[in-house]
Amino acid sequence: MFYIIAIKYFCNLELIIKELLNMWGAINNILSTVENYVWGIPLMALILVGGTLLTIRLGLIQVRRLPLALRWMVRNEKGGKGEVSSFAALCTSLSATIGTGNIVGVATAIALGGPGALFWMLVAAFVGMATKYTEGLLTIKYRTVDTKTGHALGGPFYYIERGMGKNWKWLAGVFAVLCPLAALLGTGTFTQVNGVTSALRDFFDPANANTVNIPFIGTYSIVIVISSMVLTAVVAIVLIGGIKRIAGVSEIIVPFMAILYFVTILILILTNVTALPAAIGTIVKGAFDPAAVTGGVVGGIFVSIQSGVARGIFSNEAGLGTGPIAAASAKTKEPVRQGLVSMTGTFIDTIIICTMTGLAIVITGAWQVEGLEGVQVTTYAFRQGLPFPPQVSSFILMISLVFFAFTTILGWCHYSEKCLEYLTGGKKAVIQIFRILYIAAVFIGPYMTVSAVWTSASIFNGLMAIPNMIAMFALSGVAAFETKKFFKMRKRIHNLGEE
């Protein structure tokens, strides 16, 4: 009797799962509708106007102080309180920002909004540098540090509560709830793992010849199944070590992979330098008249702006509020200094890496090839543009994507745990449960569709940005005051040798 009931149960379960899979098309349409509402004119105006306001109030700090910021980026401060060095904190932040957004996100933005989306991505990143600076400054000013253990906790939830006042604690709570949801259901897991496993499959099993049937889900390449298991196991091992292990791994992987990726795309651009002027012209023209460049394949200028800004925020996280969570752990006593170090993250991530990826895609015409999506677009660009055998080009991209996405997964879990620490008062049981759920999400990520995972990630990113950008407006005066005071003091004492 028991076996009969069990068989009926599993038969019904299979029918239910099949029905859910059949509904997936409708779910994608719903997600797209929600994304259009979230990333509508109000939110984009909030981010762009907020960044512009900060740029003005801070006296174009992303231009005037960038050389100093780059110098301080690799020079750790002595005597500061915190858990890790400023450079390690930056690498932790970069580990979460330099990920699939730089490789897959740029390709997705150009596919949706045409080459002009890259232009708007850069506009958002330029003003976003001022936003990132302000986030780094405020997180150090309002963080808490345990004097005995050095354990630091800070981020939007604290600068909203402490900077804006107790009446705004509810807004701090909203951010602290949205961040773990964004990590668990989009940015930190599904998008990263999906991109990694797709790249591995395209390299090792491009014809999808070696497959395995997964009950209730479908047939997938064995490369995807094995890689998801391995990635899940490695992520679990690192996450158990906490912030110090995450920072230690990031300090090694992030600089190495960023340099490798930068050099590779630089070779691609130099090899095709004669096509560079036309590519730049296409990007600029497409920013203001997308239909003229794409032949009407994409929508108007709003679609181009929306795609560029949304994917840009996904990549560099300026205005999102996640970067300051990592910056709060830095061993520093000076908010302005950490603000400048944090600002370099957006410069490296988007102004340099995303720009070069976008140029590679436009130069090689990868964005015009029908039937390609996600990482396949960038893979095509590498294969066509690099002076290496196609397999070598694909291998370089695959390795870059694997390590970028791996560190992004670690960084977003750290962000989420800090938010949960704020919400629960540091209850370890809650954090442990979240880790289990997070690791499970990493495991199932490869079996989600590309469009669905990117759409859900975009929705949660947009929702997170709202409370953080409200704080940017409210506390812009604090950032301006602290900045003026710091540089006035620095100029007065002429202490340039002990920065």
Provide structural commentary.
- The structure is a single chain.
- With 499 residues, the chain is mainly alpha-helical.
- Helices cover 77% and strands 2% of the residues.
- It is built from 23 helices and four strands.
- Strands 1-2 form a two-stranded antiparallel sheet.
- The mean pLDDT is 80.
Overall structural class, as computed from helix and strand content, comes to mainly alpha
Shape field: globular
N-to-C terminal Cα separation, in Å?
77 Å
Q: Would you report the number of β strands?
A: 4
Strand content: under 5%
Q: Considering DSSP H and I runs of 4 or more, what fraction of the residues is helical?
A: over 70%
| Contiguous uncertain segments of 5+ residues | none
- The main sheet orders its strands as 1-2
Q: Secondary-structure element order, as H and E?
A: HHHHHHHHEEHHHEEHHHHHHHHHHHH
Task: Report the sheet with the most strands, covering strand number, pairing sense and barrel closure.
Answer: 2 strands, antiparallel
The radius of gyration computed from the alpha-carbon positions, rounded to a whole number of angstroms, is 22 Å
Helix count from the secondary structure assignment: 23
> How would you state the average pLDDT, rounded?
80
